[in-house]
Every structure is written in structure tokens, then in C-alpha cells.
Amino acid sequence: MSTATFNSICFNQGYLRKGAVKISKVKNRGQRVKFYVGGASVLSTKCMQSSEKNKKEVRIGLLGASGYTGAEIVRLLANHPYFGITLMTADRKAGQSMGSVFPHLITQDLPTMVSVKDAAFSSVDAVFCCLPHGTTQEIIKGLPCHLKIVDLSADFRLRDIAEYEEWYGQPHSASELQKEAVYGLTEISREDVKNARLVANPGCYPTSIQLPLVPLIKAKLIEHRNIIIDSKSGVSGAGRGAKEANLYSEIAEGIYSYGVTKHRHVPEIEQGLSDAAQSKINVSFTPHLMPMIRGMQSTIYVEMSQGVTIEDLYQQLRKSYEDEEFVKLLDKGVVPRTHNVRGSNYCFMNVFPDRIPGRAIIISVIDNLVKGASGQALQNLNIMLGYPENTGLLYQPLFP
Ligand SMILES: NC(=O)C1=CN([C@@H]2O[C@H](COP(=O)(O)OP(=O)(O)OC[C@H]3O[C@@H](n4cnc5c(N)ncnc54)[C@H](OP(=O)(O)O)[C@@H]3O)[C@@H](O)[C@H]2O)C=CC1
Ligand SMILES: CC(=O)N[C@@H](CCC(=O)OP(=O)(O)O)C(=O)O
């Protein structure tokens, strides 16, 4: 195989990585990214063989492996050529194998889950932390400094500790560590993620809401007042430990609003939008639980700035995301559907004129477990460790 053909295959598969001898510069997602091949770092097709799966170059620890986002990380890493899971933790399910907790993962060769207190962190390079908020900060503050960490919980997302304590109803015990954390909404903060040791992965609702709104606010195309957000989530958003209210008999054939006026994602959404506006933005936000397993839709009602048209909003979103692999502005008039992103790391969005002059309706959809959690977490760790950010994320949506 010629070098060019090999490079092309590797790049398309996301297998090219940094190495010793520079051979080319490749334009990747709007950035100039250097890729190298040669010397000790030459990749051969061997890197894709299953016999190598236990010898991947980055050793991953997965905390909270027995939950939904943990299981999703395992699914995604099954196709990752460089990240291999060597440590897994659970709480009630410590001592069990992943295959016994999640039979759909029985084919994966994985370590037995241990309790966090028995975990040997010296033998891993990076961790995904898929634990409940509160518990997370207690555990992360005790982790060794050599680890790169992507935290899927809410513990390090809010810069204002007092705001965290107010909205989460508990004290924060790792405020120093919070100062170090980078908020990892990848497409917006990619440059900061590159150099981060601790990334606070965004919440699922805030991801679906900030991706369309941040570029529009930065470009001053929408008013800061009267932003109304109506979001809907699949039940897996509540985690596997969810209680009676999430039983099939209580979710099927119905929909309910919750956290009305006081959902804990409000300060996270407002923090991101206010940063974009460089002034305080308040939003009206109501989440709903839908009788579906995965998926999230945010329908957002905004007032356009004086003289701005729907075409302006559309062109701004096109310009912001045309080089992005995982955020897609649909053709004009096409309505995003959760079905069309299920199981993938995509966010699909579109913008529509309201009947009321001067107003617009924005719709965005994600899979809450992928772009809303584990997929974005993997996208971030790829960047933190210098791998192409799509590595392990090339799943097409599952339809029907
Ligand atoms: N589900 C989603 O769509 C999203 C979730 N998130 C966030 O990601 C994190 C994980 O969510 P998810 O996977 O859904 O949650 P789950 O409830 O499904 O899983 C929680 C995991 O944490 C473990 N755990 C619970 N309590 C403790 C403890 N005291 N000490 C150590 N481990 C513990 C559980 O172990 P065991 O099962 O053995 O008890 C389990 O492995 C949460 O912070 C959540 O808010 C973020 C975005 C979206
Ligand atoms: C359906 C459902 O219950 N969703 C969760 C949000 C999803 C999530 O896990 O958000 P964090 O990452 O901020 O914890 C909720 O409303 O609390």
C-alpha cells in the first residue's frame, strides 16, 4: 500500500496520530493539525487488529462503569484504536463483571469492577468519571495529579461556587479544583480543552441549548431578553439508579414537566450564554420527560435583534458549524428529529421563522447519552491527549 493510500485510510478511520517524522499537514475541522508518520510512531494496519485490544497505548479508568453513561463509554471505546479500559469501578455492583451487569457488553474483554477505594489509579493514564454529582468531587479531589480527567457530572461546571451550592443544595468541597476545570462544550471551547487536565463535561440539556444559541448571541443576532427554552429528554437521562417516577408504568404514554422554574441546569445554561453575550442573560427553561429511551430535543423561542432576518440566523449557524464534524445545520425547512441522531455524537439543528414578526424558533436534537454525555466526553479526551477528535466516534445514527 502506498503511503498516501495508507494515510488516507487511517485519516478517514480516525487512526492517524502524532508521531516522529512529519510528512504532511492536514486541514482538519477548520484547524491546521499536524500529523506525522514514520520512525517508531509509524502506524501499521496491525493497530486495528483485535489481538491488540488489550495493549492500547492509553490506559483508561472508568469510574461509575455500571451506570448508563459508563456503559456508553464502553460501547464507544470498543472501536477506539488507542484507548483501552484497564480499570472499572462500581458501587453496589463492585465485584461484578461488566457482562453480568450489562449482557449486551458480554463480548468485551474488560476488568472486573472494583470499588473506588480499591482502585489502583497509578496504573491508568486518564479517567472518565461517570458518578453522581456530590460523590464526584469527593473522589476527584483524591485522584493523583498525573491523570487526565473528564468528569460527566455537574460538580465542576459552575465557576461560581455559591451558585453551585444554591442550585445543588450541598456544599462544594473542591473549589480549588473547580478553578482548574475547563468547561468542555467541545465546539465552543476546543482550544481550552486541548490544555486541560480536568474537563467538566457539559450537561445534556445545556449542550443541546448552547450549541445553537452561543454563535447567535456572539454575533449579536438575537436579543438577550425573552429566551424561552422547552426541552424534552429520554428517560435514560435520569441514569440507571432512577426511582419509581421513572418506571415504565409511570412514563409510558405520557409526558411530564419537572424542575419547573428551578431545574439545576438553569445556572449552567445562563453561565454559557452570559459568557457569549459578555453580560448577564436569564432564560425561561422547562425540561420534560418523554416516553423514549434516548434522545433530547430543545425547542428555543428567541427575539431577533433589530433588522435581523431568519436568513441571517441561518447563515451565522452555517458559518459557525460548516467545518464541524458533529454539529449539523439541516437544509432550510427540515425539522430535526431525535430519531435521526440516536446512538451518534451528532447535534442536528435548524432555525425557523415564527408567525410573530421578529421572532424565531430554533430546534436542536442530540442523543443525551452520546453528544449529551459519553460521546462528548470522548471527543474531549481525544483532544486532551492529542488524537483526532472523532476517534471512536464514527457511529452513524441508529434508525429506525
Ligand atoms: N444519563 C445521562 O443522559 C447523563 C448523565 N450525566 C451525568 O453523568 C453521571 C453518570 O450518570 P449515569 O451514568 O446516567 O448515572 P447512573 O445512575 O446510571 O450510574 C451511576 C454510577 O455511579 C456509581 N455510584 C453511585 N453512587 C456511588 C458512590 N457513592 N460511590 C461510587 N460510585 C457510585 C454507580 O454504581 P452502582 O451502579 O454499582 O451503584 C454507577 O456506576 C451523573 O453525574 C449524571 O448526572 C450527564 C449527562 C447526561
Ligand atoms: C431525564 C433526567 O432526569 N435528566 C437529568 C439531567 C441529565 C443529567 O444527567 O444531567 P447532569 O449531567 O447535569 O447530571 C435531570 O433532569 O436531572
Automatic annotation (TrEMBL):
Q: Name one GO biological process term.
A: L-arginine biosynthetic process
Q: Which pathway does it serve?
A: Amino-acid biosynthesis; L-arginine biosynthesis; N(2)-acetyl-L-ornithine from L-glutamate: step 3/4
SMART domains (UniProt xref)? Semialdhyde_dh
Q: What one GO molecular function would you report for this record? A: N-acetyl-gamma-glutamyl-phosphate reductase activity
Q: Which UniProt keywords apply?
A: Amino-acid biosynthesis, Arginine biosynthesis, NADP, Oxidoreductase
**Catalytic reaction list:** N-acetyl-L-glutamate 5-semialdehyde + phosphate + NADP(+) = N-acetyl-L-glutamyl 5-phosphate + NADPH + H(+)
Task: Check the record and name the InterPro entries matching this protein.
Answer: AGPR (IPR050085), AGPR_AS (IPR023013), AGPR_dimerisation_dom (IPR058924), AGPR_type-1 (IPR000706), NAD(P)-bd_dom_sf (IPR036291), Semialdehyde_DH_NAD-bd (IPR000534)
Main enzyme class: oxidoreductase
Residue ranges annotated as transmembrane are none
> Which PANTHER family does this UniProt record tie to the protein?
N-ACETYL-GAMMA-GLUTAMYL-PHOSPHATE REDUCTASE, CHLOROPLASTIC-RELATED, N-ACETYL-GAMMA-GLUTAMYL-PHOSPHATE REDUCTASE, CHLOROPLASTIC-RELATED-RELATED
The protein, known as: Probable N-acetyl-gamma-glutamyl-phosphate reductase, chloroplastic
Q: Which organism is this protein's natural source?
A: Gossypium arboreum (Tree cotton)
